[in-house]
User: Fold this.
Amino acid sequence: MTTSVDIKIEKATRSRVLEQDVNNVPFGKCFSDHMFVAEYANGQWEKTYIMPYQDVPMSYATSALHYGQAIFEGMKAYKNEAGEVSIFRPLDNFNRLNKSAVRMAMPEVPEEIFMGGLNELLKLDAAWVPTAETGSLYIRPFLISTDEAIGVKPSETYKFIIITCPAGKYYAEPIKVLIETNYIRAVQGGIGFVKAAGNYGRSLYPAKLAQQKGYQQVIWTDGATHSYLEESGTMNLMFVIGDTLVTPALSDTILDGITRRSVLALARDWGMKVEERKISIKEMQEAHAAGTLKEAFGCGTAATIAQIIGIGHEDNYYPLPPVAERQFSNKVDETLRNIRKGKVADKFNWMYKIN
Ligand SMILES: Cc1ncc(COP(=O)(O)O)c(C=O)c1O
Assistant:
C-alpha cells in the first residue's frame, strides 16, 4: 500500500475536542479539528495539504453545484482498548471512489494521496475517535469539480477533500421499510452503482413520503418492472429465508457495499448458504406466508446492521420475527463490532492501522 506523499500541514492552534463528548454527539454534525485537501489542475494532482477544519470561500458558479460532478465515500475508524486507531477496509473505499470518478468523468485519485491523506489526518485527529462500544469516527472523503464556469462539460479543476466526525449508533431502533413501486433510485445504464451525490438528492422525496406513512426508509425496486427488491435507502438489503442468506446480486443499479461484502464473507466463512440473486416482492410475500422469512436487514457503513421489523407494500404490512430471535444478523453485528474494536482476530485483514 502506498502512502508516501508530501503533505503540507497547518495545525489548528487549539483543539476543540474537549468542547464536546465525542462518545455522545449527533451523527454528522460535529466535525474534527482538521481536514485534508488535494487539488487537481492542469491535468495533474498539484497540491496536498491539511488545514484546520473551516469554511472555504467558493464561487456560486462552481460547476459541482450545477452539474453534479460530486462523488463521495463513507467509512469509519475505530479505537481499540490500547488506544490504537484503525480504519475498516479503506482500500475498498479507495477503489470504489475511483470507480465513481471514472463514471462521472472525473480524474482518479492516486492511492498515495487517498491513503497518505487519511493516515496523516487520522494521526492528527486521533483524539476524536470515540472509545464507546458502538462509537466510531465517520470519515467522509469526497471529490468535487471546482471550475468557476457555467456550461455542461467535465470540469478542468477538482478538489479531493476528507473530513471526519464522531458517530454513535445511526438508528436507535429497528426500522420499518416501505417497498417503493413508483419512484426509482437507479436504472440500467445509470449511476446507481456509484456514490454520486445526485443519487441521494433524488432519493429524498420518496423517503419523505414513506416517512409520512410511518416508515423510516424505502426499499427500492427495479426501474423496469418494480417487482424486484434492490436496496433499502442507503443500505444493501439482506434476508434470511429458511437457512439461506439471500441478497440481490450486484448490477449497475446496486451499490457494491463494503458492509455487504463483509457480511457475505462472514456468512460463507461460517458455512452458511449464500445466494446473490434477484429477489421478487412475490418471493418475499410467499416466504412471509410460509413462515420462512426469518430475518431482514439493511447493511451499510453508517448503521452496520439495521434490523427491519416490518415491510410495507401497497396496503399490506408484513411484520417480521423479533430482533432477539435473529441468530445470523445479531452474530454478524457483534462479530463486525469485535473485529473493528480489535477484540477478536482480524482473519480477513480488514483493519488498516494508522501509523
Ligand atoms: C445506495 C447505497 N447502498 C449501499 C450502501 C452501503 O455501502 P457500504 O457498506 O460500503 O457503506 C450505501 C452506503 O455507502 C449506499 O449509499
Summary: The chain has two domains: 8-169, 175-340. The radius of gyration is 21 Å.
